[in-house]
C-alpha cells in the first residue's frame, strides 16, 4: 500500500486546510471553529465524528474487514503570540498564532483520514482519529483519555513538526523522546526588619538567593552525568524597598527529567534542600511541586513500525533514528502510559524555532505527514491481526 502518491495528489487540499486553521488560530479549550471545521470535513467523508470535552473531535474509520483498533492523534490549539511572518495567510486573530505547528498536525491528520477512508473496503479493523484540544495548557490528552478515547485501542501514533529537520524528513527516537515536567513554586517566609538592624529579622530574600544557587546542585550532584535533567528558576519576587529586610520571597520554576524514578527522587531532594536552607537562615519554606506532563517514552515495537513505514514510503535516506531526546514536554506521554505507541517527528525545514512569532513550516511536508500517519496506522492494523 503506497499512500504517498495519493497524498501528493491531494496536497493542494491539505495545504488549503492548513492555511484555514492557520488564519483562525484558537487557544486551548477554545478550539470551537477548528473543531467545527474538522467535523464538517469528516462528515463529508461519510464519517461520524463525536464531540468530547467541548472542543475535542473523535472519529472512527471502520474498515470493512475485522481487525483491531489503532489511534492517530493531532492537537488543535494555538499559542498566545503575535505572528510576525508577514505572510498572506498569517493569523487573522491578534495575539494568537499557530506557532507550534498544530495547524499542520490537524490538516495532516485530515489528509490521513481521507487516505484511509477511501480504502475502507480493504482495511482490517478501525482507525480512531483523536483531534485533541489544549496540548499547550493543561494536558488535553489526559482529559481525553479520562473521557474514554482509548477504549479498545491497541496502539497509538502521533507526530510533531520539527523545524531543524529538512522538509519531509522523518525522525524517530526510541525510548525517551520528551522530558517529564514538574513546575514548582517555593514560598519563603521570613521576618521583615529595618535594613540597618538585620539581626532583628529573617531575610527571606537572602534565603531565596541561597536556594536559587543551591538548587543547581540538584542536577550537578543528584543526577548521573550520563543521564539528563534541568532545573530552571524562572521568577524570583521579594522585597518592597531598599532599606527593608524582605519578609517573603516567592520563586517559580520547572524541573525536567527522564524517567519516573529520577523525577520522584529529584523532587524529594529539592524539597529537602529548600526546607533545610530556609530553616538554617531563620526562615520557613513551603515547596509546591505540580505533577506536570509525563515524559514521552516511545515503545520499541511501535517505533520500529513507524521507521519501517517511513522507509517504505520515503526511502531510507529520508528517515533518521534520532539519538537525543528533547527537554521540552508534550502531553502525548499520557497516551503512551496507557497503550503502546510512538510519537515521531516530521521535518518542516524552518530557521525560526517552534513558539517563535516567525515560525513558518515548509508546507511541502504536509503530504508526507498525512501519508505516514496513514501508512503507520495501516501497518499497525496488520501487525495486530
Ligand atoms: Ni506542539
UniProtKB/TrEMBL annotation:
Keywords: Hydrolase, Manganese, Metal-binding. Mn(2+) binds at residues 100, 102, 136, 160, 355. GO terms for molecular function: metal ion binding; N-acetyldiaminopimelate deacetylase activity. Its cofactor is Mn(2+). Residues 185-278 form the Peptidase M20 dimerisation domain. One of its GO terms (biological process) is diaminopimelate biosynthetic process. The keyword Metal-binding applies. Pfam families: M20_dimer, Peptidase_M20. CDD domains: M20_Acy1. It comes from the Bacteria. The Mn(2+) ion enhances activity. Coiled coil: none annotated. The keyword Hydrolase applies. Signal peptide: none annotated. This is Amidohydrolase. It comes from Candidatus Avoscillospira stercorigallinarum.
Amino acid at each position: 500500500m503506497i499512500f504517498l502518491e495519493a497524498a501528493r495528489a491531494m496536497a493542494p487540499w491539505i495545504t488549503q486546510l492548513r492555511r484555514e486553521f492557520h488564519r483562525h488560530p484558537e487557544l486551548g479549550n477554545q478550539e470551537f471553529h477548528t473543531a467545527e471545521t474538522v467535523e464538517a470535513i469528516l462528515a463529508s467523508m461519510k464519517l461520524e465524528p463525536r464531540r468530547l470535552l467541548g472542543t475535542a473531535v473523535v472519529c472512527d474509520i471502520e474498515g470493512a474487514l475485522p481487525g483491531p483498533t489503532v489511534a492517530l492523534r493531532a492537537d488543535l490549539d494555538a499559542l498566545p503570540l503575535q505572528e510576525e511572518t508577514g505572510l498572506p495567510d498569517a493569523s487573522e486573530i491578534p495575539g494568537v498564532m499557530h506557532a507550534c505547528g498544530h495547524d499542520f498536525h490537524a490538516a495532516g491528520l485530515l489528509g490521513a483520514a481521507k487516505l484511509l477512508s477511501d480504502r475502507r473496503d480493504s482495511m482490517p479493523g478501525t482507525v480512531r482519529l483523536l483531534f485533541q484540544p489544549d496540548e499547550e495548557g493543561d494536558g488535553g490528552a489526559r482529559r481525553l483519555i479520562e473521557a474514554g478515547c482509548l477504549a479498545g485501542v491497541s496502539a497509538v501514533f502521533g507526530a510533531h513538526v520539527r523545524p531543524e529537520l529538512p522538509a519531509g524528513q522523518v525522525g524517530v527516537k526510541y525510548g525517551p523522546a520528551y522530558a517529564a515536567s514538574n513546575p514548582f513554586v517555593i514560598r519563603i517566609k521570613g521576618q521583615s526588619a529595618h535594613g540597618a538592624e538585620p539581626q532583628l529579622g529573617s531575610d527571606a530574600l537572602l534565603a531565596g538567593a541561597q536556594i536559587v544557587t543551591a538548587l543547581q546542585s540538584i542536577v550537578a550532584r543528584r543526577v548521573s552525568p550520563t543521564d539528563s535533567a534541568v532545573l530552571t528558576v524562572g521568577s524570583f519576587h521579594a522585597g518592597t524597598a531598599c532599606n527593608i529586610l524582605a519578609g517573603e520571597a516567592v520563586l517559580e520554576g520547572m524541573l525536567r527529567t527522564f524517567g519516573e524514578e529520577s523525577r520522584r527522587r529529584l523532587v524529594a531532594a529539592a524539597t529537602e534542600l529548600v526546607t533545610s536552607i530556609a530553616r538554617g537562615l531563620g526562615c520557613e519554606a513551603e515547596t509546591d511541586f505540580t505533577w506536570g506532563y509525563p515524559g514521552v517514552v516511545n515503545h520499541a515495537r511501535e517505533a520500529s513500525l513507524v521507521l519501517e513505514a517511513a522507509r517504505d514510503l520515503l526511502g531510507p535516506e529520508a528517515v533518521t533514528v534520532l539519538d537525543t531526546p528533547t527537554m521540552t514536554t508534550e502531553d502525548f506521554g499520557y497516551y503512551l502510559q496507557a497503550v503502546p505507541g510512538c510519537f515521531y517527528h516530521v521535518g518542516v525545514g524552518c530557521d525560526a524555532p517552534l513558539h517563535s512569532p516567525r515560525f513558518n513550516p515548509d508546507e511541502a511536508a504536509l503530504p508526507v505527514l498525512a501519508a505516514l500517519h496513514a501508512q503507520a496506522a495501516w501497518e499497525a492494523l496488520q501487525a495486530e491481526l
